[in-house]
Amino acid sequence: MLIEELDMKTVTALIASLEAELGANAVLTAESDLAPFTEDWRGRYKGPAAAVVQPSNTSQVSAVVRLCAAHGVPVLPQGGNTSLCAGAVPANVGLPPVIVNLTRMRRIRHIDAANGSMEVEAGCVLKTIQDAAAAEDRLYAVSLGAEGSCQIGGNLSTNAGGTAVLRYGNTRDNVLGLEVVLADGTVWNGLRALRKDNTGLDLKHLFIGTEGTLGIITAATLKLHPLPVQHALAWFAPVDPAAALHILGMFQAACGSRLSAFEMINRRQLELVIEHVPGRRNPLSELHEWHVLVELGDTHGGEEMAALMQQTLEHAAESGLIHDAVLATNETQRATFWEIRHSVSEANKKGGVGLTTDCAVPVSAVPLFIERATQAVHAIVPGLDIIVVAHLGDGNAHFIPFFTFDAWRQLADRSSMANTLRRCVNDVAHELRGTFSAEHGVGQTGLPEMAHYKSAAELRLMRAVKNALDPHNLFNPGRLLP
Amino acid sequence: MLIEELDMKTVTALIASLEAELGANAVLTAESDLAPFTEDWRGRYKGPAAAVVQPSNTSQVSAVVRLCAAHGVPVLPQGGNTSLCAGAVPANVGLPPVIVNLTRMRRIRHIDAANGSMEVEAGCVLKTIQDAAAAEDRLYAVSLGAEGSCQIGGNLSTNAGGTAVLRYGNTRDNVLGLEVVLADGTVWNGLRALRKDNTGLDLKHLFIGTEGTLGIITAATLKLHPLPVQHALAWFAPVDPAAALHILGMFQAACGSRLSAFEMINRRQLELVIEHVPGRRNPLSELHEWHVLVELGDTHGGEEMAALMQQTLEHAAESGLIHDAVLATNETQRATFWEIRHSVSEANKKGGVGLTTDCAVPVSAVPLFIERATQAVHAIVPGLDIIVVAHLGDGNAHFIPFFTFDAWRQLADRSSMANTLRRCVNDVAHELRGTFSAEHGVGQTGLPEMAHYKSAAELRLMRAVKNALDPHNLFNPGRLLP
C-alpha cells in the first residue's frame, strides 16, 4: 500500500537523520535489539517501535524531538521500564513511535548539601540517587520496590509513590526544578534549587505525573532531607481496620513527623508470604486477621523513640485495640519485619492469580472501603479470597481479588472477570471520593478508567493543556487522555 | 465618545443582570462603597472598577463569570486585599473589571481529623482556619503576618509563604484539592481529600500561584498536620551569615523536622526595632552584627528538645561560630523573642524609607547574596544603610536599602532611585540562580521583573496555558504575564 511505502520511506529517512545526529550506536532498529524496550518487564505488553534512540545529553534529546516532529513520527520517552501499568512501552494502536530511552543520561551533575538539593539527569537509577545523597548525610526520600532499576525520569513522569509517602510525600513533593525538552525541541531550563519562587505558573507541575505526554524530562533538581539515623519498628495485630486507623491517629498525635511508615496487610496476605517465600515467619505467635508494620525515624533520640513506640502500643492495648504486638529490638529483626512486607509480590505471584488494584480514599474511609469492596467482590464471586496490602497512612489500599491457579483456569472468560472485578473495586473507591490510581499511574491499563471516572471538566482541562503544549500530538499520542 | 457610551451601556446592563442574579445588596457600584476594594491596604495603589460583587456561593460565582464573559467585562477575584505587591486591586490600564470579592464565602464546610483534611470556602480568614484545625488537635501550618485578615483564596492564588515554610512548605504544599470556577463559568470540582492520586495532570497546580489569571478558586481541601504542642526557642548572635548557615546545617542534622524556624536579622534591623517599637529589647547583652531566632517544635519530648537546643548551640559556640546566645525559658520569653521578629515592618515604617525586596537564592548562597547585594547597592549610594530580614532556612532574604526620611526627601528622582536599587538587588539574586519574588508574588509591582528575568521559553509556556484556559482573557487581563 502507498501509505506503508510512504511510512517506510519516512522512517528510513528519519533513522538516517537520527544516526547522523547521535551516531549509529545510539540508534537501535534491529528487532532483537528493540525487544528489551518494546516489552514490559512482566512480559504482558508489547508494541512496535520505529526505533529506540539513546541520547547522551539534552541537546541530543532536543535534536531527536525536532527530527521526529519534522518527520511526523511520535515520540515515547522511556526510563527503567518498570511501569506496573504498561506505561513505558508502545501500544498496538497508532504509528509506531521512536522510543527515547534516557539510560545514557545518568550523571549526577551536582550536590549542594547545605541547600539540601541535587541535580541529576533523567536516566539516574533511584538507588544511585539515594546512595549519593546518603554519602552526604542527606536523604532522598522516595523509596519503592523497583528502586534498583527504575529511573528518576520515570519516577517524575509518573509521580511515583512508595513506602515513604506518609512522611515525605510523593515524587512531586521531592523535586525543586526540572529541565524539559518541549514539543518543538526547545529546552526549558527550570533547574531551580529554590524553596520559594512565586513568579507565576509553577511549570514543573505540568510535566510531573503526565507520563511523557507534554515533554521529555531530561534532568531534575531534587530536594534532600536531613538523614534519619535512628529507627524504631514494631509489628502488631489490630482488632480490625477501624482499630488500625485509630492507632494511626494515636501515633500521629504522639510521634508527629517521626512516623515514617504505617503498612497494613490482612491474614491471607501473611499466610501467602509464609507459605511461598522461604525464611518468612509470622512475627507474632498467632495468625491474626490484620497486621500492621509501624516505623518511626529520627535524627536523634533513639531510646526515647523506642519508649514512645512502646507506650503508644501499650496505650492501644489498654484501649482494647490490638491483640498482640512485638517490637524489633535490633537491626536484624527490623530487616526481618520489612522483608515480610517486601515479599508480598513474590508470594502472590507464586500463590495464585491476583487482580491488583491501586485505589486511594481518604485515610478515614479505608475501613469502609475494605468492607464495601469485599461485599462487592463477593456479590460477584461468593467467598473469593481477598488480599489487602495497604499503605494505610496514605489511604492507599491495594485490594486484590485472588484466585487459585485452578479456579482461574476454570473460568470461561478470564479477561471479562478481571475487568468486572477491578471495576467493581474502583467503583467503591469512587463512591468514597477516591481514585482508581493512587501511585501506579494510568499507563495503558488505566485508560478505560480515565474515560469512565474523570469528569468532563477535568478531561477538557487536561486536553486544553495538551493541545497548548503539544499541538501536533507528538509525545505519547493516545496516552493518558482517552 | 461612542466607545465610552457603549461601555456605559454595557456596564449598566451587566450590573442589572448581576443584581438580578445576586440581589442588589451583593453588587456595589457607588464610589464610596468601592473604595475599600479598589485601593490597596497601604494606600499606594488604586484603580477603577465597574462594580464589586460579593457572591455567597459557588453557583453565584459561576453566574457572575458567565455574565461578565457575555458582556466582555474583565473579572478580578479578590480575597482579604492584603497583597504586598498590589495584586488584589485594579490597575489603571485596560477596562475596569468587576471585582469578585469572596468575603461572604467563609464557611468551613467539613473537617476530617482522621484524614488530616478540612474543606473550606475561599473567603475563610487564615486565622479562622488555623483555630478550627487546632480545636481538633490539628495544625494548618501556613502562618503569616496578615493571618488575621488574609483569606485562604488569596493565599492559594499567590502560594503564600510565611514563617513555617522551612518545615511545612508553602501554601501549595498544604492543599489537597480545589474547587474552581473556569472562564466559561464551569465549576471544576477537584475537592479531593487524597494523599495520593496519579491520574494525569494535577490540575490544582494550574490555579495555585497564578494570581487569579486562570480561574476563581471558590473552595479548597487543606492538609492538616499533627499539632506540635511543645517548643524550644533561642536567640543567638552568629559571627556572620556564613556561620549562621553552618549552624543551620548543625540544627538540621541534629533536630531533623523539629526545626520549624530559622530567622536572621542584621544589626540595623534590631536597632530600628528597639528604637521605634515600644517594649522591644535586645535579648542579648550586646548589639551584634547578626542575630538569629531558632525554633524547634514537636508533639512530644519537650525537655529532651530543650537539651538538644542547648547542646547544638554549645557545639556552635565551641566551634567559634557564635558570639552569644540565650534560650527562652518560658512561654512569655518565647513570645517576647517572636515579637521582635514580628515588629520589623512597624519599625521600618517609622524609622525611614525602606525599599523592600523579596529575593530567594539557594540556601547555601545567602551569605554571598548579602555580600554582593551590599556591594551593588553601595556602588550606587555609598554607605547607605542596609536592612536584612531573612527566612534563612528557605533561602529567602528581604534585603532592604534603607534611607532616612531626610535623605529620601532630598533625592532628585525617588522613583528612579527605587527602581535602580531594587533592580540591582534582583540582579544579584538572578546571577545566583535565584528569584525576585520568593513569597510575595508578582502583582502589579513585579510585572516589569517578569519581563526582565523570565526566559522566553517560560513566558511562552505560561502564555500557552493562559490562552488554553482563558482564551478571551477574562480573568485579570494584563496581570502576571507581561
Q: Tell me the overall shape of chain A.
A: globular
CATH class type of the largest domain in chain A: Alpha Beta
Give me the CATH architecture of the largest domain in chain A, please: 2-Layer Sandwich
Q: Quick one: which chains have the greatest interface?
A: A-B, 99 and 99 residues
> How far apart, in Å, are the first and last alpha carbons of chain A?
29 Å
Q: What's the assembly state of these chains?
A: homodimer
Q: What fold name goes in the CATH topology slot of the largest domain in chain A?
A: Uridine Diphospho-n-acetylenolpyruvylglucosamine Reductase, domain 3
Query: What is the structural class of chain A?
Result: alpha+beta
Pfam families (chains A, B): FAD-oxidase_C (PF02913), FAD_binding_4 (PF01565)
InterPro entries (chains A, B): FAD-bd_oxidored_4_C, FAD-bd_PCMH, FAD-bd_PCMH-like_sf, FAD-bd_PCMH_sub1, FAD-bd_PCMH_sub2, FAD-linked_Oxase-like_C, FAD-oxidored/transferase_4, Oxid_FAD_bind_N
Domain FAD-binding PCMH-type (chains A, B): 45-227
Keywords (chains A, B): FAD, Flavoprotein
